[in-house]
Design brief:
Blueprint lengths: L1 E4 L3 E6 L5 E6 L1 H11 L4 E3 L3 E2 L2 H13 L8 E2 L4 E7 L5 E6 L10 H6 L7 E5 L5 H16 L3 E5 L11 H16 L3 E5 H6 L7 H9 L6 E5 L5 E4 L4 E4 L13 H15 L5 H4 L4 H19 L9 H9 L1
Parallel strand pairs: 1-4, 1-9, 2-7, 5-6, 9-10, 10-11, 11-12
Antiparallel strand pairs: 2-3, 7-8, 12-13, 13-14
Helix pairs in contact: 1-8, 8-10, 10-11
InterPro entries: Carboh/pur_kinase_PfkB_CS, PfkB_Carbo_kinase, PfkB_dom, Ribokinase-like
Protein name: Carbohydrate kinase
Keywords: ATP-binding, Kinase, Nucleotide-binding, Transferase
């Protein structure tokens, strides 16, 4: 069984007429939904609020097949990200993340919610911000001691920690520490730049990450330029699939990572030893499935991940 550790938040999106539309999201929550739709058993670990938004999250996660275990409901409100439109329609983000439900609970409480037969734990996004990193680090370490593979999607959101240089440096440091604990690492080209690395030389970035004995597989998502997978033995890069009519890109990276891990699980490659032995053919097949999962999602409004059979059929077509 898989586990997902990280935020569930509501994006309040401003429309040109001044209305705000609430959209359930959060990187790790989106990932959990995508994994469940890909046919994998997964538990979402963080508490959900007893407020109206929290009830909607419970309903949506359960409808997608995500396991919530015996999760207690938090009296804290659901996290919010207010997305406002500035001049020219350029969005700006304001996060409301103090005393919220998905940050409620101790490391010990989260560890107690880990599934007994844990194969992999995934985290990233806002869970790697300095205020949460110590707790997340403790949970990841406990999962590793149980033999679980660790997957980290950096998915940096620098605005969440404020503009101060010290806060930004602490955030980057926490993300780098998290990447160092993972067998599977995912970075966007934007993440690479935010971490102070050269996005024009991803082979060098991947080689640096793979110099850590823990890391076995590195995934780069490159927007319109496609995506790349790297191991110590091989590297595969593919362009964006043809004839993809983008509606929006909400959840694209989360769906990519879910598709990648679902393929690896389906083909029995989701162990530290097996990850280190992936061939070029394996990497290409895994990357095609991951990119197809994301491609289907971006042709829909919001995060609406495809199922396993739908993704396989899309690839055949």
């Amino acid at each position: 069984m898989f586990a997902a550790l990280g935020e569930a938040l509501v994006d309040l999106i401003e429309h040109p007429d001044g209305r705000y539309e609430p959209c359930l999201g959060g990187s790790v929550c989106n990932f959990a939904r995508a994994m469940a739709r890909q046919g994998q058993r997964i538990r979402y670990l963080n508490p959900l609020s007893s407020d109206t938004f929290g009830q909607r999250f419970v309903a949506r996660l359960q409808a997608d097949g995500v396991d919530l275990g015996q999760m207690p409901r938090s009296a804290c409100p659901t996290s919010l990200a207010v997305v406002s439109l500035g001049p020219g329609g350029v969005p700006s983000y304001t996060f409301h993340r103090q005393h919220v439900a998905d940050r409620d609970g101790t490391a010990d409480e989260l560890i107690a919610r880990l599934p007994a037969a844990l194969r992999l734990i995934h985290t990233g996004g806002l869970a790697l911000a300095p205020g949460d990193w110590a707790k997340v680090h403790t949970v990841l370490r406990a999962a590793r001691l149980r033999g679980a593979v660790v997957s980290v999607d950096a998915n940096l959101r620098p605005v969440v920690v404020g503009p101060g240089a010290a806060d930004q440096a602490a955030y980057v440091n926490a993300v780098r520490q998290a990447l160092g604990m993972a067998q599977i690492v995912k970075l966007s080209d934007e993440d690479v730049r935010a971490l102070g690395w050269n996005s024009a030389d991803l082979n060098a970035v991947g080689t640096q990450l793979l110099s850590n004995p823990m890391t076995q597989l590195v995934a780069f998502t490159l927007g319109a330029d496609g995506a790349m997978l790297m191991t110590r033995q091989a590297c595969v890069q593919l362009p964006v699939p043809a004839a993809v009519a983008v509606v929006d890109t909400v959840g694209a990276g989360d769906c990519f990572q879910a598709g990648l891990l679902a393929w690896l699980a389906h083909e029995h490659h989701l162990t530290a030893d097996a990850l280190g032995q992936l061939t070029v053919s394996d990497l290409e097949a895994a990357l095609r499935h991951a990119m197809a999962t994301a491609a289907i999602n971006v042709q829909r409004k919001g995060c609406e991940p495809p199922g396993w059979d739908e993704t396989r059929a899309w690839l055949r077509a």
